[in-house]
Write a structure and sequence with these properties.
Number of domains: 1
Distance between the termini: 23 Å
Order of helices and strands: HHHHH
Structural class: mainly alpha
Helix content: over 70%
Strand content: under 5%
Mean pLDDT: 76
Low-confidence stretches: none
Number of helices: 5
Largest sheet: none
Radius of gyration: 18 Å
Number of strands: 0
């Protein structure tokens, strides 16, 4: 999430960051407050439903994060800002779809700003 925060902050979208972070925190609340024994086979249906909701929320948050990344890069006001983000993202570790999204955006930024000294 740190990489997303860097992109969004550079583009001035602190509200977007706050929304995503709030959704991540809210995603855990139902799991943390389960009132039944998750290891009791008699509660397996309820546990499956709780997990399904968690995974659905997770996918929604990934989609919102990808959109935040795209929007933030589009809002960058200068080639210099894009270059700075490109350099910072080279050292950031992320997972799965977010990593792929960042890679694609960075590829586009690199291509678009190659003539301006970014590498």
């Amino acid at each position: 999430m740190h990489g997303v925060r860097a992109v969004a902050l550079c583009a001035g979208d602190t509200a977007g960051i706050d929304r995503v972070v709030h959704r991540v925190v809210a995603m855990y609340e139902p799991i943390e407050s389960i009132a039944f024994n998750v290891f009791d086979y008699g509660n397996s249906h309820e546990w499956k439903m709780a997990k399904a909701q968690f995974y659905a929320d997770n996918e929604d948050i990934k989609a919102a994060t990808r959109e935040l990344i795209d929007t933030s890069f589009r809002k960058l006001r200068s080639a210099e800002g894009a270059c700075e983000l490109l350099q910072s993202f080279k050292s950031i570790k992320s997972k799965g779809a977010i990593q792929k999204q960042v890679g694609q955006v960075l590829e586009t930024v690199s291509r678009d700003h190659a003539d301006k000294g970014c590498s």
